[in-house]
């Protein structure tokens, strides 16, 4: 059994979502990969992290209004309580909330050069919902993980009907579509307190669905297009009460911190 198998229920994710100005991307990615993520993984209760980058794939039904942030950092937590633990608060408030020396130097250079901060950002705790459709052997793709992320809001009066349709109809049928191998559904938890000087720039969606794909192109496949044309009348009625706040197909980035932590698997 791995530490990921020994998580308390429900599974909890912390997902900072962000964009960077083009001129800051390389520097920001080096900072996350070599400084920030290894630091966070040293905190008791933060047990895994994967970083994802948006691809250019435009799924069927997608519109430019649904374009989400370019980067997702997906941290797996032992529980939401980790984010109020002394260990996490000590890291967060390091040097008066200014973080590591690398971060301070990076932000000072940006200030001196008149560079801007990320144009969009959101930090959210997500609590995994039950997955009645999960059964049998899960397919594991070879190579970097590919995920199709969909963030939604729905009229609260229709929450029960929406979730019942998602759990017992929409997702089980979608997972029979070639190339869709797994789905995890999450509900937004309590919004995180933002770091001083970094206001939340995006409003919080209520639901997050993460679909694993065998390749990014699955989201543009004929099989997926046929599935979308065959959804039930119940789903079509519910669509009028929901909004897709954002979506995108993401590819997992390399994880250099795993070598630093002695995990070569």
CATH-assigned fold name: Alpha-Beta Plaits
Number of contiguous helices: 8
Q: What integer is the average pLDDT?
A: 84
Distance between the termini: 15 Å
Rg, Cα atoms, Å: 19 Å
Q: Report the CATH architecture.
A: 2-Layer Sandwich
Strand proportion: 25-35%
| Biggest beta sheet summary | 8 strands, antiparallel, barrel
The gross shape turns out to be: globular
According to DSSP, the number of beta strands is: 8
Helix content: 25-40%
Element-by-element helix/strand order? EHEEHHHEEHEEHHEH
How many domains comprise the coordinates?
A: 1
Give the strand order of the largest sheet, numbering strands 1, 2, ... along the chain.
1-3-2-8-5-7-6-4
Low-confidence stretches: 1-6, 261-265
- CATH class annotation: Alpha Beta
Structural class, by secondary structure, is alpha+beta
Map the helices and strands.
Blueprint lengths: L11 E7 L6 H17 L4 E9 L16 E7 L8 H7 L1 H4 L3 H12 L8 E8 L17 E9 L4 H16 L5 E9 L18 E7 L8 H8 L3 H7 L2 E11 L4 H4 L5
Antiparallel strand pairs: 1-3, 1-4, 2-3, 2-8, 4-6, 5-7, 5-8, 6-7
Provide a concise account of the structure shown:
With 265 residues, the protein is α+β, with helices and mostly antiparallel strands.
């Amino acid at each position: 059994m791995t530490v990921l198998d020994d998580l308390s229920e429900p599974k909890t994710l912390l997902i900072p979502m962000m964009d960077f100005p083009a001129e800051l991307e390389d520097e920001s990615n080096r900072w996350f990969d070599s400084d920030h993520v290894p630091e966070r993984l040293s905190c008791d209760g933060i047990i895994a992290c994967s970083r994802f980058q948006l691809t250019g794939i435009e799924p069927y039904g997608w519109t430019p209004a649904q374009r989400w942030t370019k980067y997702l950092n997906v941290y797996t937590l032992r529980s939401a309580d980790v984010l109020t633990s002394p260990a996490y608060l000590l890291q967060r408030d390091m040097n008066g909330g200014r973080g590591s020396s690398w971060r301070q130097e990076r932000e000072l250079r940006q200030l001196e050069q008149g560079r801007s901060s990320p144009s969009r950002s959101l930090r959210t705790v997500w609590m995994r919902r039950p997955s009645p459709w999960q059964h049998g052997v899960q397919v594991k793709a070879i190579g970097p993980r590919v995920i199709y992320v969909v963030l939604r809001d729905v009229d609260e009066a229709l929450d029960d009907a929406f979730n019942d349709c998602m759990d017992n109809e929409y997702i089980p049928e979608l997972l029979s579509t070639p190339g869709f191998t797994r789905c995890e559904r999450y509900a937004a938890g309590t919004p995180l307190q933002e770091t001083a000087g970094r206001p939340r720039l995006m409003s919080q969606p209520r639901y997050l669905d993460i679909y694993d794909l065998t390749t990014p192109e699955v989201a543009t496949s004929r099989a997926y297009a046929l599935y979308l044309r065959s959804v039930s009348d119940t789903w079509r009625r519910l669509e009028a009460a929901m909004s897709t706040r954002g979506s995108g197909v993401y590819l997992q980035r390399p994880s250099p911190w795993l070598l630093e932590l002695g995990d070569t698997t």
